[in-house]
Design a protein that fits this description.
The complex is a heterodimer of chains A (552) and B (352). With 552 residues, chain A is mainly alpha-helical. Chain A folds into two domains: 254 residues, MetI-like fold (Orthogonal Bundle), CATH 1.10.3720; 272 residues, MetI-like (MetI-like fold). Chain A is globular. The two termini of chain A are 31 Å apart. With 352 residues, chain B is an alpha/beta fold. Chain B has two domains: 150 residues, D-Maltodextrin-Binding Protein, domain 2 (3-Layer(aba) Sandwich), CATH 3.40.190.10; 135 residues, Periplasmic binding protein-like II (D-Maltodextrin-Binding Protein, domain 2, 3-Layer(aba) Sandwich). Chain B is built from eleven helices and eleven strands. In chain B, strand 6, helix 6 and strand 7 form a beta-alpha-beta unit. In chain B, helix 6 runs parallel beside helix 11. The radius of gyration of chain B is 22 Å and the shape is globular. The termini of chain B are far apart. The chains are: A mainly alpha (552), B alpha/beta (352). At the A-B interface, helix 4, helix 14, helix 22 and helix 23 of A face helix 1, strand 2, helix 4 and helix 7 of B.
Amino acid sequence: MTATKVRSSTPTWRTYALLLSLLVLVAAPLLSVLLTAVFGYRDEPAALASLIEPGMLRVVGNTVWLSLLVVLFATLLAAPLALLMSWTSLRRHSWIDVVVMVPFMTPPFAASMAWMDFTRLGGVASMLFGDTVGQFGHDFIYSVWGMALIMACEQFTFLYLILRTALSTLPASTLEMASVVGASPWHRARSIIVPMLVGPYSLGVLIVFIRSAGEFGTPVTLGNAIGYQVLVSSIHQDVTVSPLSFSQAAATSSVLFTLGVLIWGLQQWVSRKDLTSGGRVSRLYTVALQARGKIGAWLVVAGIFMVSVLIPYFSIVLGSMTILRSEPPGLDNLTFDYFGIVLSKSSAQEALTNSAFLGFAGATLAVLLGLAVTLLTLRNPKKTARTTDFLAIAPDTVPGIVMAVGFILLWNAPWLPITPYGTGWVLILGYAGLFLPMVTQNIKTSASAVSPTVLEAASVAGASTWHIFRRVQLPLMLPGIIAGWLLALLIGFRELVMSSLIRPADMQLLSPWIMNVFDQGQRAEAMAMTLIGVLSSTLILVLVTYWQRRRI
Amino acid sequence: MLSNKRITLSASMLIGALALASCGSVASSSRDQNSAGGTESTQAWEAPDGLSGEISYYSANPQGLTDDLVAAFEEKTDVKVNVYADTTGKITARLKAEEANPQADLVYMASWDAATEQSSAGTLAPYSPEGSDQVHEGWSTDEFIGRDGSALALVVNTNATDAMPSDWSDLADQEYKDQVIMPDPRESGTAADLITAMVAQQGEEETWKLFDNLFENGMVVQGANGPALDTVTAGSKAVVFGGVDYSAYSAKDEGEALEVVIPESGTTVTPRPLMILESSDNAEAAQAFADFMFSAQGQEVSAQRNMIPGREDVPAQAGPQFEEIDQLATDWNEIVESSEGVTDEFVQRYLN
């Protein structure tokens, strides 16, 4: 209990200051969305009435169906891989964990473009596998199933990381005990493994669902091409294409917001009995694979990477090297020149450096806030602390485009004396708001693994609060901090929604740059830039992981 | 967490494989042949003295043309031009989002309709650039003027088909079965204008009969102008119905197997208007930039980038001259007015 005492002796103004920052960063934009939905935008009347039109019902239905399919595909990709990587000898192959990050670091619409080109009529798929397979691939990808598969490739990383962590916390001894007392494999799965996975899996599903409902990369490329409209594409249209309607965008956003809150409530209900043990286990559960099992396992891994990495990247590399679209991709029709052409463009250089810097700044701000939230609210039952904690996690229930619309409505209001709108600051704030839940979750997980007794011991030994934080807590929490910061940085670098909607007019950013170049028909340049971006991200990932491993 | 050796190994293997594969190169001469920015001009534009400061220029594609114009203007003056390049719909959206705090000085759009909208919202300052008295008839108003234009054409991939159409109705022939793509009029303003002009010129009955035949022959309607052209360039379809001519000419210049056919029975030439915002805080520089764009030199830059110049005395460099093209309709204000109704009817008939 001494630890609680140590914490409660810190002045409460810190808690209030933190609460206030989160109210401005998270609650105010969402409130602006709801207020605009109800009262309208400036002289535009409220558009709530449009929500009961039959067309809207279809769009909501499309959104839910698409997001459910993404969850399905993400589970099919993530679950087998998580099982293999936590319970079998495959876990020795840590390069798999790097490859898993590649689809996550790919700009969302670039994968769509790659798949669309791969399976277009007479495209590479037909050239390689014949017209029948090509036609089948075309019909599958150019459908809501294809959209879901492409989006799942980007999102399944979250689910994989969550499931793998959960499976790795299952002590081998528990399952062995069950087996000794005679529980059948089925019984063991039902009464030990499943209950333990419900919480983490439902959290993963929540994140995947919300992110697929709030990301417009695939909906505005493949979705618009096949005429499959979802909430996010109609909001995107309302705020970017004439005729503009912020009232309509706010009304549609509030539907999406409500959907997010409903799913969140459902997730809370499903995982009400949290059986996750947390912490590390002394001995990992291991399933020894026979030769045939090993081959099967590697085939599964190969299949997953084939769909999520190899095919899209084959198409991206080919696209970035093709000189003439109208000629077949022979040797004399391929070149490396586009990488040089892209890198020598000043707008492309700006886009790369701006995205790197803003992603870095946004991730760092999110880490500072997440750290403050963790320190001030962990094991603190006070109401202000609970509210702060809730606000830090809230953006995860809010699809990204809703936050972006909220930022536009709030920070563009004419009565504000000063505003970050029109400068890079608005993007740093926007990114920080988006990343906050993910970063906070990571920091909290590693913080809760730190036993209060360690802090008590330090306190008894006479260390000051600051000293305890710096020498004991911070080093123990560092893995969580770095993991959260790295994920945030990698997303920030390739982020599309905030970047497109709230960037200042003359500020180049990676994903909008690629999309704009695509729109102008310069496919090779766009694909080359996608590769440059992903290679830079991979480099950062490898360097940080390497540095972290050397430290330990 | 990871095995660095393996990553290095596989990365170098990948690069090695790619290096083996790479033998060609981008013909830089064809890509950048026009970047000189009008140095051949016989009538170089002279900038007035004392211009300085910055202006914000919002420009609908194409990028190369924008870059050339800005570079040439910055060379002649001390004005810095900040460019925001996007599509017409997105530029309109940004102007609206910034209406409380306007940022743009000068705007160039790809749609007459969008300019009309700005004009009736009262955001434009009246200005007639020097040289604007030379522009084609019907291309100028007090507040916005067509700087250059593009004709809608049949764009044919010669690797994908042996046939060569000469008019819209040819595409209903058996040899083009399932081979034709048209940009979606809901996404492409030029496609919407084309249908409207057809209705204006030959009446509803004739127009819908033409489209009935085309759809029966398997024509698809998909996406905006760019993706439609890309589909044909890549060979998934053989002909664009109503493709924007300049991007097809540019792709052809780069060596793509494309032909651009101006239909015999006529087409539309869409003027792309330039306008100055009333809120401009550097109107003098904005007007000078507008003057430059309408000077013979500025107009030649448009011609070099395969656009049809707005001025009658500056010839087009790719494709036929303005007066050689049979136009379905020329009254843009009327086309703009009836366009929405015609598009709705089209969508109702064929896309639902």
